Amino acid sequence: MLPLEACRSIWSSATAGTGSPTPTRADEISIPEAAARLGVLDAAVRYQVRVGRLPAHRTPSGRIAIPWNDQVEAQLRADLDRAKHPGPTGPGKRSSSPRA
């Protein structure tokens, strides 16, 4: 078994230069960057991309890049501020029949 420092050294040289995912153009941001700017989870931004409310594309390295400007940010904030998913029975409703 390798000592801890040797493992750290191997890991840091294997991951050198990978850093955080950054898109290739200045007017694009990554999903984690968009989530941080909006104060939401990455999953919320991924959902907006998946349902087509937020345009995105894959970079040559395979990462997802989102074209970003003030208008895109404002529209996405409006989408995220709308009423949340009501759930299977609607907002605040309970089944009238008791469960067995």
From TrEMBL:
Superkingdom of origin organism: Bacteria
Region (Disordered): 75-100
The name this protein goes by in its record: Helix-turn-helix domain-containing protein
UniProt organism field: Actinacidiphila oryziradicis
